[in-house]
Amino acid sequence: MPEATLTVQLAGGVGVPLDRLAACVQRLDPATRALLDLSVRRGVRDDQMAPILRTDPFHLAWRRARALEKIASDVGNGGGPAPLGEVRMALEALPRDAWGLPPAGPPALPVAAPATQTSAALVPAVAQPTGRLARLDAFAIESPTLRAALRHLGRAVAAKAVRVVVWPRRGR
């Protein structure tokens, strides 16, 4: 007796084997496959990915739509492509190994120290308030003092005066 294959039901009662859907996904280039994995399977928004990938969210949405259309046309029967919404839902149901991703490595950040260990910080961090006043306070803290600003201005003016006196233009 042949082994039963898992299928995903699409519109009209058409069942698509998960193997076929996984093969369509694995035929995509790695960048597009990663984009689909992050956006469709893991729910990462385009505006969160765009700065990391140095592109705009519209371009990411466009690439995802083209990839979904390609998978829908590959999965669809002779009557036309499968509905995009159902293809997207079927992709969410694909297991992790069907995406052809490398296995997860060690965590990027070190594990947090246990609570019993004392902190090495000299001054404990205080939660920063958010909002307009917090931004103004942060700006005031990072800004130079009036004395430092005037000192830098005096140095710039003195350097310009020395340049005019010591190194006059030769074209006169």
Task: Write a concise synopsis of the structure shown.
Helix content is 52%, strand content 3%. By secondary structure, it is mostly helical. Helix 2 crosses helix 4 (57-75).
Report on the structure:
With 172 residues, the chain is mostly helical. It folds into two domains: 7-99, Winged helix-like DNA-binding domain superfamily/Winged helix DNA-binding domain (Arc Repressor Mutant, subunit A, Orthogonal Bundle), CATH 1.10.10.10; 132-166. The protein is built from seven helices and two strands. It has helices at residues 18-26, 30-41, 46-53, 57-75, 84-93, 132-142, 146-166; strands at 7-9, 15-17. A two-stranded antiparallel sheet has the order 1-2. Strand 1 (7-9) and strand 2 (15-17) form a beta hairpin. Helix 2 crosses helix 4 (57-75) and helix 3 (46-53) packs across helix 4 (57-75).
Q: What proportion of the residues form beta strands (DSSP E)? A: under 5%
Helix/strand-derived category reads: mainly alpha
Segments where pLDDT lies below 50 for 5+ residues? 1-5
Order of helices and strands: EEHHHHHHH
Total count of domains: 2
**How many DSSP E strands?**
2
Quaternary state of this entry equals single chain
CATH superfamily of the largest domain: Winged helix-like DNA-binding domain superfamily/Winged helix DNA-binding domain
Strand arrangement across the biggest beta sheet: 1-2
Largest sheet: 2 strands, antiparallel
Quote the CATH topology of the largest domain: Arc Repressor Mutant, subunit A
Radius of gyration of CA atoms, rounded to a whole number: 30 Å
Number of helices: 7
CATH class of the largest domain: Mainly Alpha
Terminal CA distance: 102 Å
